[in-house]
């Protein structure tokens, strides 16, 4: 958390959507549809996952895709590439309470 605060002093985008990192706010998913969760840490991993995401969208059009990232540039790239066709959030801090709350809230069919 301290690292994130420090990064926020240099790049304010790190402080935006802070509540997602504590699982206080997560994207609203459709509980009647299965959800595939893909974690791509940064913009580079978002770029690398493009073929996978395109294939999943083509093969499973009835399922929701959630892409989690850790950086503002990764978040921006998800928005640029996919707009509203996927859900996006920042991955919460890797602490038991937040992890449990995150997985319980999104209830993924599969995580990649």
From TrEMBL:
GO terms for biological process: lipid A biosynthetic process. The keyword Repeat does not apply. The keyword Zinc does not apply. Signal peptide: none annotated. One of its GO terms (molecular function) is transferase activity. Residues 16-112 form the 3-deoxy-D-manno-octulosonic-acid transferase N-terminal domain. Keywords: Transferase. It holds the Pfam family Glycos_transf_N. GO terms for cellular component: plasma membrane. This is 3-deoxy-D-manno-octulosonic-acid transferase N-terminal domain-containing protein.
């Amino acid at each position: 958390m301290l690292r994130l605060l420090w990064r926020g002093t240099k790049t304010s985008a790190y402080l935006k959507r802070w509540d997602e990192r504590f699982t206080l706010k997560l994207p609203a998913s459709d509980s009647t549809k299965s959800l595939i969760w893909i974690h791509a840490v940064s913009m580079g991993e978002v770029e690398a996952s493009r073929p996978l995401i395109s294939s999943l969208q083509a093969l499973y059009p009835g399922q929701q895709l959630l892409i989690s990232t850790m950086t503002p540039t990764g978040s921006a790239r998800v928005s640029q590439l996919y707009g509203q066709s996927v859900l996006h959030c920042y991955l919460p801090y890797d602490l038991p309470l937040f992890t449990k709350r995150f997985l319980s809230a999104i209830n993924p069919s599969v995580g990649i």
